[in-house]
Write a structure and sequence with these properties.
single chain, alpha/beta, Rossmann fold, 2 domains, six-stranded mixed β-sheet, 10 strands, 40% helix, binds adenosine-5'-diphosphate, binds magnesium ion
């Protein structure tokens, strides 16, 4: 079997209050995976991200990036290769213009000036914010700031991109634009980890879902496996995605044959209903 990009073994992290925010977390992440990290507030998602990105150093446990066993001296390997888009853009933005902001990471990598410039232009174009480059990021709207912070990470060209609750502060239009960016990154084969409370998004987007509860991973599987597992849903206070709930309800009431071809979008649902239910044929 292929080797994981990132191997996390028995990670512990404790904040000042003495309570373990990560309480023995082990997980392997493979190239190109689209992973959703779910679980209630305070379950340890952000702390996990900050540990695997090298912002924090774990109390105990091991992180192996490619063949590098991470320690205090080579932490920069994690910071360089695992980028994180913070939940709150204001905590990430530091420079006084968008251009300087997006160039900050590549400059810290000590890349030649031309390459920094090239990466900045590329990242701005990718996020469709080239017009903003001379503006102070702090005065942009929430959605624009989010795009700047994603450009920050794209300019670093990391192997893994982490998004910590990316849609939390976005209006529906910006959330949709963000999902388009995620799809674009996904189609390019980027390895991604996204924490979110949006179970419908997890169901349609992720290939794998990891569930945190009180600093531990309590489940790891396909979104379908996770969202069909009542015990896990209860323990982690998760709702079922609407599509799945509806499918299971119709099957339970014998209104739909359980083909196991679970629809993930309204489009797919309509098609299935149209094919199976004669008087709904017009939907197909
Ligand atoms: N800066 C901090 N100082 C002290 N405790 C913290 C800090 N950040 C998070 N915690 C605690 O660590 C636990 C995990 O939090 P966090 O990783 O932020 O969870 P999540 O991202 O899943 O909401 C919670 O109990 C939270 O209160
Ligand atoms: Mg968090």
């Amino acid at each position: 079997m292929e080797k994981p990009i990132l191997k996390v073994e028995d990670l512990y992290y404790v904040y000042g209050n003495g309570k373990a925010a990560l309480d023995g977390v082990s997980v392997d992440i493979y190239e190109g995976e689209k992973i959703a990290v779910i679980g209630s507030n305070g379950s340890g998602k952000s702390t996990f991200f900050l540990n695997i990105n090298g912002v924090f150093t774990p109390e105990q446990g091991k992180i192996i990036y490619r063949d590098i066993v991470v320690n205090k001296k080579n932490l920069k390997e994690l910071r360089k290769n695992i980028g994180i888009v913070f939940q709150d853009a204001d905590n990430q933005i530091i420079a006084s213009t968008v251009r300087a902001e997006v160039g900050f990471g590549p400059m810290n990598l000590k890349l030649p000036k031309e390459e920094v410039q090239e990466r900045v232009e590329e990242a701005l174009a990718y996020m469709n914010i080239s017009d903003f480059k001379d503006r102070p990021p702090h005065y942009l709207s929430g959605g624009e700031k989010k795009r700047v912070t994603i450009a920050d990470i794209i300019a670093m060209k990391p192997e893994i991109v982490i998004f910590d609750e990316p849609t939390a502060a976005l209006d529906p239009l910006n959330a949709m634009m963000l999902e388009e960016v995620l799809d674009k990154l996904g189609s390019e084969g980027k390895t991604m980890l996204i924490s979110t409370h949006d179970v419908d998004f997890v169901y349609r987007w992720a290939e794998r879902a990891i569930v945190f509860c009180q600093g531990k991973i309590i489940a790891d599987g396909t979104p379908l496996e996770i969202f069909k597992n009542r015990k896990v849903l209860k323990q982690a206070n998760l709702k079922q995605p609407a599509m799945l709930e509806m499918y299971e309800l119709l099957v339970e009431k014998h209104l739909l044959e359980d083909t196991k071809a679970y629809p993930k979008s309204t489009q797919e649902f309509k098609k299935m209903l149209g094919e199976q239910v004669s008087f709904l044929g017009a939907l197909a």
